[in-house]
Specification:
Layout: E1 10-15, H1 18-34, E2 40-45, E3 64-67, H2 88-102, E4 106-107, E5 124-126, H3 136-149, E6 159-166, H4 182-196, E7 200-204, H5 207-214, E8 221-223, H6 229-236, E9 239-243, H7 248-257, E10 265-268, H8 273-279, E11 286-288
Parallel strand pairs: 1-2, 1-5, 2-3, 4-5, 6-7, 6-9, 7-8, 9-10, 10-11
Helix pairs in contact: 1-3, 1-7, 3-6
């Protein structure tokens, strides 16, 4: 539309690591296709349970910005808001936010966000997480972006190696979240290794801890060290056998490997099944454990 050329850039805000940021990337690609005359910028916030920095700047040079808004989690009292806190400013702010959302100027319901809710006058979208169906063309573009921006020069495509992505990191310390039990992973790993007898390559944000947990099964496990998130995902896109855990990186490895030119046999925790079905539907070569 003619007027859209004179509107500010649409800001797509996201929180979290690479896995969360990739949802914002897909949303941007879809919106660019819908509104080719509008300009977009992705705003990556460091704030959250764990500090995260932008991993996607190479995908859109000059149009990804980072906001240094991380603060250590503070104790929050549970219970009703004190009466003195509900003042005129709070009421006015609440009314303004409702107005902006009502007229689709600002959108933040990205779990159920449909492109139909985004108008040419929309100025801001929260896009770091999504349980909606993802566009096929956008997924192919994301796959190419990851491979092209990766610093990994070469890898064996269609490798018989078994790739394992075991997220631990902050899950080892958080009270409301926990990592997938190593016993569950070992059950899949031992069965797969006995069937194909391949080398096991482990990717983790806590590599030594993950290695200790998985070598308890007397399996030959090699650790991939000093590899950033983008490079790790780029390597996982060359897998023929993949075991993921409760991580968005694992989700993305499965989603993007479904677009591979060769068959990839994948395994994910059953807790992630609803995410996969929402994003891409049922996959023939994916099993849940």
């Amino acid at each position: 539309m003619f007027l859209s050329k004179f509107l500010p850039k649409i800001e797509i805000h996201c929180w979290g690591g690479l896995g969360s940021q990739l949802y914002a990337v897909v949303l941007r690609l879809e919106l660019e296709a819908k509104y080719p005359s509008r300009k977009f910028i992705i705003v990556c916030h460091e704030n959250g349970v764990t500090r995260r920095t932008s991993e996607i700047s190479p995908f859109f040079p000059g149009s990804v910005i980072s906001v240094e808004d991380y603060a250590q989690t503070k104790h929050i009292e549970v219970g009703p808001r004190p009466a003195e806190a509900v003042n005129g400013k709070v009421i006015v702010r609440s009314l303004v936010v409702k107005f902006l959302k009502l007229f689709s100027i600002v959108l933040d319901g990205d779990r159920s966000l449909g492109l139909a809710k985004v108008r040419f006058w929309t100025l801001q979208v929260r896009g770091h997480y999504s349980e909606r169906r993802l566009n096929e063309s956008a997924l192919l573009q994301v796959r190419n972006m990851i491979i092209q921006s990766s610093q990994v020069q070469a890898f064996e495509s269609g490798s018989q190696n078994i790739f394992v992505h075991y997220r631990l990191g902050d899950l080892l310390a958080l009270q409301n979240k926990s990592p997938i039990s190593s016993d569950r992973i070992l059950g899949v790993l031992q069965d797969l290794h006995s069937r194909i007898g391949s080398r096991i390559c482990l990717f983790s944000d806590s590599p030594d801890t993950a290695h200790n947990l998985l070598t308890a099964g007397n399996l030959p496990v090699d650790i991939a060290r000093d590899i950033n998130a983008v490079d790790s995902l780029a390597i996982l896109l060359h897998a023929q056998y993949f075991i993921g855990t409760n991580s968005k990186i694992s989700i993305w490895a499965v989603i993007l490997n479904s677009k591979s030119s060769f068959r990839v046999e994948s395994y994910l925790p059953y807790e992630l099944q609803h995410h996969i079905i929402a994003n891409i539907g049922s996959l023939q070569n994916l099993k849940y454990y």
